[in-house]
Amino acid sequence: MTLLVTGGRILRPDHTVERADVRIDTDGDIDAIGDLERTERDQPLDAEGGLVTPGFVNAHGHAAMTLLRGYADDKPLDAWLQEDIWPTEAELGPEDIAAGARLAAVEMIRSGTTAFADMYFHVPELVDVIDEAGLRARVGHGVVTVGKDEAAAEADVQEALDIAAEYDGAADGRVRTAVMPHATHTVDTDSLERLVAGAQERGVPLHFHFNETESYLDPDGTGERPGAYADRLDLLGDSAWAAHGVHLTDEEIDRLADTGTAVVHCPASNMKLASGLAPVERLREAGVTVALGTDGAASNNDLDMFGEMRDAAMVGKLAADDASAVPASAVVEMATQAGADALGLPGGKIAEGEPADLAVVDLSGAHLTPEHDLVSHLAYAARGSDVRHTVCDGKVLLRDGELLTLDPATAKREAEERAREAVERAS
Ligand SMILES: CSC[C@H]1O[C@@H](n2cnc3c(O)ncnc32)[C@H](O)[C@@H]1O
Ligand SMILES: [Zn+2]
């Protein structure tokens, strides 16, 4: 059967809105857009009174950190990681990661996210959940070598490279991999060099936290800035994407632009951990692809990309001291097309020949009335709970608010139990 998204208005890649139906072929691609006659082969999906948008792309996060939501708030990054998060993560096993990731998938699908990037551990269990949920993702094993002996560091690097090779193309091609050193200051130089060479050999991209706080700014203790250091080690490049990018010199912004490295802005996490004001307007003006990410649910504390768009627009203006900076259209682009481009994944736009990764946003709420400007509503007024349907790769994951691939009650119960037990083990 083909799928026919009927009666809605669609958000075009140039951000114009037009009345149109969307037919999705059996391969999961958008086959036709326009005033389409329903045939007996079409299974309808009602978009009347809704806006059909590209599915949102959450370009940086740690899905299973849903288990640590609300566990340790109101601290800066280093204290938060060292005192609370890392000791508890040390207690998480593969089944915990599956439970946390399943809860994240419920939250993402319900709020219209169809693709995400994930840096964490126990990646095979995460991949199984992505397959089950029907989502699309770019995943990698996060490597940290500080505080580890040589053998443990070596094992971590090898695991990241093995995972990148083994799982690329899993879940019918919806899962792609990347090599993911945690950050330039938490992975030693030798390991970074091995990871870069391994990524190049395997033809997969690199992803890492970058210049998030002042602790990042002297990665190898020589005084060399992280931008120059990362460039010298070949971490930067047009298939790499860097999370946060808060504390950047003009020279580093130019370097990111020249190398084609994308940056994922994580406004809620940056504000909550008081990491700083990212120079989003300057990055965009320099020609850097800027995507949007929630980071983990423990530093956000949700995975709703509508909240992220609103935060990005608001804090972008504050950072630039300019109310016209980071406008609505920019954050919608960051949450869709730029995210897909940064991750090297298909999707991010509603157009013929593109994979059908989309969300239908119900416009009937009082908070979305009147309809002067639907791009403005997406950025400033809509919420994840306004999403009526979510479709990924042509498969309906959420229909009329009901999850079709996962059982939310079971996902919540399991995550609740596993989170409680992990915290008890850690304390
Ligand atoms: C080694 S897997 C990924 C690792 O990153 C940690 N993490 C979560 N949020 C942040 C952040 O904002 N900056 C740096 N590191 C972060 C997560 O807890 C995992 O340990
Ligand atoms: Zn992160």
TrEMBL record:
GO terms for molecular function: 5'-methylthioadenosine deaminase activity; metal ion binding; S-adenosylhomocysteine deaminase activity. Substrate binds at E89, H182, E212, D295. Its cofactor is Zn(2+). Gene3D superfamilies: Metal-dependent hydrolases (3.20.20.140), Urease, subunit C, domain 1 (2.30.40.10). It comes from the Archaea. Binds 1 zinc ion per subunit. Transmembrane segments: none annotated. Its EC number is 3.5.4.28, 3.5.4.31. InterPro entries: Amidohydro-rel, Deaminase_MtaD/DadD, Metal-dep_hydrolase_composite, Metal_Hydrolase, MTA/SAH_deaminase. The keyword Ligase does not apply. Keywords: Hydrolase, Metal-binding, Zinc. Residues 51-396 form the Amidohydrolase-related domain. It catalyses: S-adenosyl-L-homocysteine + H2O + H(+) = S-inosyl-L-homocysteine + NH4(+); S-methyl-5'-thioadenosine + H2O + H(+) = S-methyl-5'-thioinosine + NH4(+). Zn(2+) binds at H60, H62, H209, D295. The keyword Zinc applies. Catalyzes the deamination of 5-methylthioadenosine and S-adenosyl-L-homocysteine into 5-methylthioinosine and S-inosyl-L-homocysteine, respectively. Is also able to deaminate adenosine. Belongs to the metallo-dependent hydrolases superfamily. MTA/SAH deaminase family. HAMAP family: MTA_SAH_deamin. This is 5-methylthioadenosine/S-adenosylhomocysteine deaminase. It comes from Halosegnis rubeus. The lineage of its organism: Archaea, Methanobacteriati, Methanobacteriota, Stenosarchaea group, Halobacteria.
